[in-house]
Amino acid sequence: MFFFADLNLLDWSSENLVAIGLKSATYIWNGESNIVIQSLHVDSPSTYVSSVSWINGGTCLAIGTNNGEVQLWDIETQKRLRNMLGHMSVVGALSWNQHILSSGCRLGHIHHHDVRVAQHQMGTLRHQQGICSLKWSPSEKHLASGSSDGHLNIWPYDPGSIKLNTPLQSILHPTAVKAMNWCPWLSETLAVGGGMRDGQIRIWDTSSGKNTNSINTNSQICSILWLPETRELATSHGTPRNQVTVWQYPTLQKLTDIYDHKGRVLYLALSPDQKRIFSAAANETAVIWKYWRE
C-alpha cells in the first residue's frame, strides 16, 4: 500500500521526533540520532493510519484512523492513552490548539476534543464535503479548514460551541484544498497550493479574504511549508516532475528545485531548528535534507 494523497501522514514535533503513518502503524523517527526508535500499531491490520499530529510542546501524539477513531499515544511510555470516538468515516486531518484537538473526516465534519476530560467532544463544524486539511493559526485565534470541494473556511476560536458555526471567511478554490499552511510570522496570512487542474500558489489575507499574491507552478501542489529561518516558502509537487520547490516571499520568485523523489512528494515537515525538511513521496520513500540560505 502506498501513501494516500488526501491524508496527512507526517509531522515533526518540537521535541525533534518525526511521526509517519504507514498502513496500520505509525513509525517514530528520532531527528537527532536519525533512526526509527519505535512503532505504534493501531488495532487490526484492516485499520490504517489516516493522519498524525503532535501536541505543541510535548510527546503526546494524536493518530486518526480509517474507522473514525482518534487515538492519543504517550511516546515516552509507548502506551495508548485513550480512544476518542465520534466520526463515522476516515479521519484525514488533525490540528492541536493547546489541549484542544480538532479532527476532520471525509463526511465533512470537524470535531473539537478537550483531551483532558472524559466527555471530550466540545463542538462540531461542518463542510459539505470531506476535510482535506486542518490548521490552527500560530496566534491560536483561528482554524483554517480545507475541503475536497475547494472550500477554504476560516473559523473563530470557539471550540465549546454546540452549534454548526458560520465561518468568518469562506473562499472557493478550483480544486481540493489539501496543501494549506499559516505563515508563522504573519498571523493572518495563509498559503494554499492548488491541485492537478490548478497548480496555483495563492497567498490569502484571511482578515479581508483578499488574494495578496499568486503564481502558477504548472504542477500539482501536494504540500506547502513556510521556512521562518529564511522567510521563504517550500512546495512539494506531483506530475510532471515530482520536485520540491523553494520560493522567495512575498514575491513568489522561484529560488530552487530539488529532485530527490521518483513519485509525488505528498508531505513536507520542518525540523524544530528550522534547518531540515523531511519529505515523503507516494512510493513510500522519504528524504531528509538540509536547507538554509546565508
From TrEMBL:
Residues 7-289 form the CDC20/Fizzy WD40 domain. It comes from the Eukaryota. WD repeats lie at residues 42-83, 124-155, 195-214, 258-294. Keywords: Repeat, WD repeat. It holds the Pfam family WD40_CDC20-Fz. Belongs to the WD repeat CDC20/Fizzy family. This is CDC20/Fizzy WD40 domain-containing protein.
